[in-house]
Amino acid sequence: MRLRGWEKLDVDKKSQLNAVMVCGAGHSGSTLLGLILDGQPDAFYVGEGGKIRYLHDAKKPIHKRVCKICGEDCPVWSNFVWDRKAPLYRQVADHVGASLIVDTTKDTDWIRARTSELRNAGDQACLVLLIRDGRAVVNSRMRKYPERAPETEIARWLSQVRGRHRAVRVL
Ligand SMILES: [Zn+2]
To answer: What is the pTM of this model?
Structure first.
């Protein structure tokens, strides 16, 4: 696991928001890491925050526009409306009363956009690039999607890892 910026996070600076974004190839353990970080004081794990884009979007199927865990009655997401003119994580932090936001969206455009919002607002961003042994990733995907060819999953893992390494370098 490579951590960038982690050592610079000053969690005692109350006015400042901290965000930890976890990226890597799918099936690398990001959800587990997100849940572990969620246990930190004042932390809130949004899951894959990119899905916030689809909340309350009537054009999306119901399972995409509500919380994946609690459904329509979610105490957090049922009454959260993203004002896209303002930084997302600050809105989420105000909504749930957190000062550390954890997001495991792997989409590099999403990570770039959130990083620039954080920096512009004077907040702190930390990016975690999770690298899991490719054999374990492919094994996990083959169990979940037995109909897929292992060669395709190996190629997909390689391209995701290379793509995310490139993205991390430019952040
Ligand atoms: Zn929920």
So the answer is: 0.85
Could you please report the per-residue DSSP string of 65-118?
Answer: HSBTTTBTT-TTTTT----TTS-HHHHHHHHHT-SEEEE----HHHHHHHHHHH
> What separation in Å is there between the alpha carbon of 70 and the centre of ligand 1?
4
Between the CA of 69 and the centroid of ligand 1 the distance, in Å, is 5
Distance between Cα 109 and ligand 1 center (Å): 25
Cβ–Cβ < 8 Å for 85, 141 = no
Q: What Rg do the C-alpha atoms of the chain give, in angstroms?
A: 17
Ligand 1: distance of its center to the CA of 46 in Å? Answer: 10
Distance 96 CA to ligand 1 centre (A): 12
Per-residue pLDDT of the chain (171 residues; tens, 9 = 90+): 444 455 556 555 557 899 999 988 888 899 999 999 999 989 999 999 999 999 999 999 988 899 988 889 999 999 999 999 999 999 999 999 999 999 999 988 999 999 999 999 999 999 999 989 999 999 999 999 999 999 999 999 999 888 888 777 766
For 2-48+99-170, which CATH class?
alpha beta
So where are the chain's domains?
A: 2-48+99-170
Span from the CA of 39 to the centroid of ligand 1 (angstroms): 16
Distance 25 CA to ligand 1 centre (A): 25
